[in-house]
Design goal:
This protein is mainly α. The chain has helices spanning about 5-20, 30-45, 50-75, 95-115. It has one domain (about 5-115).
């Protein structure tokens, strides 16, 4: 295994773990989750994968950036619902964050299953 491939795997694994750990607390952990998706994107880029998979991870990262940005913006203006004076419908702006997270976790899970089923070449 060459150095580029090794770093690719390390970044994808570290990013996946960060995405899982950040999901424990969606607001404060969103920065960790966002950093994890960036690590997976960089690892995917380094791994010289097909363009379709790289485009997928770019979409996941963009969705998460938009959702996390909306979440921080809504928090900064006092939140939504209740006595804040903002309709609960403003929460729709946060939806790209969980959608991106679910897309990322699904792709990582599929990759994990494929790597387990595929017999490893002898070193």
């Amino acid at each position: 295994m060459n150095t580029r491939s090794l770093w690719s795997r390390i970044l994808v694994i570290a990013g996946g773990i960060a995405m899982l750990l950040g999901a424990i607390d969606p607001l404060e952990g969103s920065v960790v989750t966002l950093a994890g998706s960036a690590l997976v994107l960089i690892g995917t880029f380094l791994g010289r994968v097909e363009r379709r998979l790289l485009s997928y991870w770019i979409a996941v990262f963009v969705l998460m950036v938009v959702g996390v940005g909306a979440m921080f913006a809504l928090t900064a203006i006092g939140g939504i619902g209740g006595d804040s004076g903002h309709s609960m419908w403003w929460g729709v702006l946060v939806l790209p964050y969980p959608v991106g997270w679910i897309m990322g976790m699904a792709n990582l899970l599929i990759g994990l299953v494929k790597s387990i089923r595929r017999p490893q070449a002898a070193a």
